[in-house]
Write a structure and sequence with these properties.
The chain crosses the membrane at residues 723-746. With 833 residues, the chain is mainly β. The chain has 8 helices and 55 strands. The strands form 14 sheets. It has a 6-stranded mixed sheet, with helices on one face. Strands 19-20-26-25-22-23 form a 6-stranded mixed sheet, with no helix packed on it. Strands 11, 13, 15, 16 and 17 form a 5-stranded mixed sheet that branches.
Length: 833
């Protein structure tokens, strides 16, 4: 740092010297520097200047403009040497490097201006200047203490709780990120529904903290904090404080207003509006209860055309969902109304099902309705009886004997009420249901119970039904229109009869229906089904009878396993009346056997067998291999075969495996070498063989899925020996060589007749016509004979090939192995002298 300060000092000394030299050699400078310097005339001034960060400030060296000025700076609290800032003379100035940390500095006429002032400029600026005066130069010094103020930043408000419960303490804190102290704060409050900002009443609010202890609902709203210092003031964004309270006790009002003791009253069919108000924050959730049961949710409950059944107590339940608090208020609403709807008439059998009781009911209303029964042509008589016996309110009963009452008789019930301009009436007609009762039987899901149902609907009053067993014992209790009897499932119920007896007061004789519980009855289309292997067999089963008690037909395979739906092997088709099982791709003997069609209900089980016979196709004929030979490369074989006997066939299969080698090791498994051979083929060329492996082959005939006995196992024979052309060529060459040698020998004898007379006479002696025949000696006869034989033999050799060399022996076997044996061909070369 000291080195840096010395370098800066040298730099500004050079600048100052430069300015001095400039003034010294100028015209103005000559006269200026000619003035004497009054060393005793030294002035010193010290003052304080305040600046604002980011703005501009001017620092003056004195009241007069100095001829030469030099500014330096010492930061507040620093003990080091001052920092050079700027030096200048008149309009020319130079700013020292590194002054940007204080702001944008400029020097004009001795005044130092700092724009965009920085807080680092807080400190002591020292000015040294030469001030020209008449006849002398005065040295002036000025110390400017610069105080940089920081404007207040925008404050922000922090709440201890954004939503506070009424009665608790809440504090609001106002904070600023920067600003020169001292700071002052003020608070403003605005109600939640709007309005001008105002100081909170009775809360002070002059500090950075605003404490509400305790908080109440009037404190809810928007709060704004304003921070001030000697530079500026800023206000925060509004912050909302929510005060949670309530609900207060509800107040219930009603329109139209018709108060009564403990509540309100209204007329029937009148529109009623009930309103409930319970101050709360958050707003209350309102629930309306009618006689303790919830009927509406909301602050207002509108009852359009109020009915008589809507009278009673109404409770308004107000709930604060945040605080989980509730309050309620209850009123009594009275509705004046006639009985609801209209009178209802009914007829019931009574007095051991012999009489009819006519009943008229019209309950409710205020006051109760007055009722009376009127029969055909009996209006006046009934009216006198009612007056004598007294009126009936809400309910009236009239007993009629069933024997004396005609089927189809109609009776009316007349009703009167003070609120009705005209009376009300209901009518009932007594009649016997048509037809007869119907009986059905149903079993439970797990066949644990059997339910007997008897129905005979219609009639007024309804017919009374009851179950009886075949022994005349009553079962269950009498029931109108429908009677149900539940029995525990048992095999003893099979074949039993049950009777449903129906009685009616207007009917003299009872009606009946009968029901018998039977086990399921089945029948099959055929008890035995035959199919060829690979075909489809259809097994059919159907219901035989009407009563099943919910039984279902189930098929079982020969292993007594249930045949489910969706199997690939079996195809199950089922309807309400039948169930067919189709066995696909029948296999022998696995799919053959006895299949069962079974049905079970709550009283028994029925099972019918169907035997499936899977027949195989006839066996194909046996096969014999007639030829099996390698090719020269031993990678292919030529196979020929023939069939023995008659029989259907659809193709052939050729199998191969490695021959048994070594002897102690068992041969490998058979593998299919060709399986797509047509039934008319008798030979096949097979490739893909390993020349180093000895293979064994066999052939099987196939009839659909039935394979015949395999042929004998053979190994391929070696390819035939092909040396005959070479041997024949060698024989021909030898004969030619012998002939040439013989001709040369004869020519030599002819030329040397004198030297070889006997040989010449032997070769060239011919008998002349005159010469007598020379008899042959006994020694020559055999020689001549031998020569003739040899000549004939030589002609035979020259004329064609030897039969012994080419012809196959007659005793040779037609077997392919014998044909492949090597042939020995003797070659004889004869030379004639």
């Amino acid at each position: 740092m000291q080195v840096l300060q010395r370098q800066r000092g040298r730099l500004f000394s050079a600048l100052r010297d430069h300015l001095v030299e400039k003034f010294r050699f100028s015209d103005r400078g000559s006269s200026f520097w000619a003035q004497p310097l009054d060393a005793g005339s030294v002035s010193y001034e010290e003052r304080t200047v305040t600046g604002v960060r980011g703005r501009a400030v001017e620092l003056s060296c004195g009241p007069a403009v100095p001829a030469v000025v030099f500014w330096s700076f010492t930061a507040a609290g620093s003990t080091g040497p001052p920092q050079a800032v700027a030096v200048g003379s008149g309009l020319e100035a130079m700013v020292a490097p590194g002054v940007g940390a204080l702001g944008q500095a400029s020097l004009l006429n001795g005044t130092l201006e700092l724009r965009e002032l920085r807080t680092a400029a807080t400190g002591r600026f020292f000015c040294q200047g030469l001030f020209p005066e008449p006849g002398r130069l005065r040295v002036g010094y000025a110390a400017v203490l610069l105080r940089v103020l920081v404007p207040v930043s925008r404050p922000f408000v922090r709440l201890t709780a954004a939503a506070a419960v009424e009665g608790t303490e809440v504090a609001l804190m106002c904070a600023v990120r920067e600003g020169t102290a001292p700071l002052s704060f003020s608070w403003q409050h605005r109600e939640p529904r709007g309005g001008p900002l105002a100081a909170p009443m009775g809360l002070g609010g002059s500090g950075a903290e605003l404490r509400l202890a305790p908080a109440n609902r009037s404190h809810a709203g928007w709060y704004v904090c304003t921070a001030r210092n000697e530079v500026n003031n800023r206000s925060s964004e509004p912050v909302y404080l929510d005060i949670i309270y309530g609900p207060d006790e509800p107040a219930i009002s009603m329109e139209p207003f018709s108060p009564e003791q403990g509540g309100f009253s209204a007329g029937e069919r009148e529109d009623v509006v009930l309103s409930c108000l319970a101050p709360s924050n958050p707003p209350s959730r309102y629930i309306w209860l009618h006689n303790g049961s919830q009927v509406h949710t909301g602050q207002t409950f509108v009852i359009a055309a109020i009915a008589r059944g809507q009278a009673g107590t109404y409770t308004c339940l107000a709930e604060n969902t945040h605080l989980q608090t509730r309050t309620q208020a209850t009123i009594i609403l009275t509705v004046y109304y006639p009985p609801a709807g209209s009178p209802s008439c009914s007829a019931l059998a009574t007095a051991d099902l012999r009489d009819v009781a006519l009943r008229c009911r019209w309950p409710g209303g205020f006051p109760p309705a007055q009722l009376r029964w009127v029969g055909p042509g009996e209006e006046e008589e009934e009216e006198e009886e009612e007056e004598a016996a007294g009126p009936s309110f809400s309910m009236a009963t009239n007993i009629r004997p069933g024997v004396t009452t005609r089927n189809g008789s109609s009776f009316a019930c007349l009703a009167t009420h003070p609120t009705l301009r005209e009376g009300a009436m209901c009518r009932t007609t007594l009649w016997v249901p048509a037809g007869s009762p119907a009986c059905t039987a149903v079993a439970s899901k797990r066949d644990e119970f059997v339910m007997l149902r008897c129905r005979w609907e219609g009639g007024m009053p309804p017919a009374t039904l009851r179950w009886w067993d075949s022994r005349g014992q009553a079962l269950g209790v009498p029931m109108p229109s429908a009677a149900v009897l539940v029995l525990s499932a048992d095999a003893s119920l099979g074949g039993q009869d049950f009777i449903c007896v129906a009685t009616h007061p207007l009917r003299v004789a009872a009606a009946q229906c009968h029901l018998r519980l039977d086990i399921p009855k089945l029948e099959v289309e055929r008890s035995e089904v035959a199919v060829l292997e690979g075909g489809e067999a259809r097994l059919a089963c159907r219901w035989c009878g009407v009563t099943h008690l919910g039984a279902e037909m189930v098929w079982y395979d020969p292993q007594e396993r249930e045949v489910p739906l969706g199997m690939a092997k079996y195809w199950l088709e089922q309807d309400e009346a039948w169930a067919n099982l189709t066995v696909r791709d029948a296999e022998w003997p696995g799919d053959g056997g006895t299949y069962r069609c079974t049905a079970a209900n709550a009283v028994g089980t029925t099972s019918l067998p169907v035997h499936l016979r899977v027949d195989r196709y006839p066996a194909p004929p046996n096969v014999t291999i007639s030829k099996l030979r390698y090719t020269r490369a031993r990678t292919e074989v030529r196979l020929e075969w023939r069939t023995q006997g008659t029989g259907n066939l659809t193709g052939f299969v050729v199998q191969r495996r490695q021959a048994k080698k070594p002897q102690r090791r068992a041969p490998g498994p058979w593998e299919t070498a060709a399986g797509d051979i047509e039934p008319h083929s008798r030979d096949r060329r097979l490739g893909g063989l390993d020349p180093t492996v000895v293979y064994a082959f066999r052939v099987l005939a196939v009839n659909h899925r039935t394979a015949g006995h395999p042929s004998e196992v053979q190994t391929p024979a070696e390819p035939p020996f092909e040396a005959l052309p070479a041997v024949t060529g060698a024989a021909v060459v030898g004969m030619l060589v012998a002939t040439v040698v013989s001709l040369l020998a004869v020519r030599c004898v002819a030329r040397h007749r004198d030297n070889l007379p006997r040989l010449h006479d032997l070769l060239f002696h011919t008998a002349s016509p005159e010469a007598p025949e020379i008899p042959s000696t006994t020694e020559d006869a055999p020689a001549a004979t031998n020569r003739e034989d040899r000549a004939e033999q030589g002609q035979g050799d020259a004329g064609g090939p030897s039969t012994t060399a080419t012809a196959e022996p007659l005793s040779a076997l037609p077997d392919a192995a014998a044909a492949d044996l090597p042939v020995d061909v003797p070659i004889v070369v004869m030379a004639t002298p």
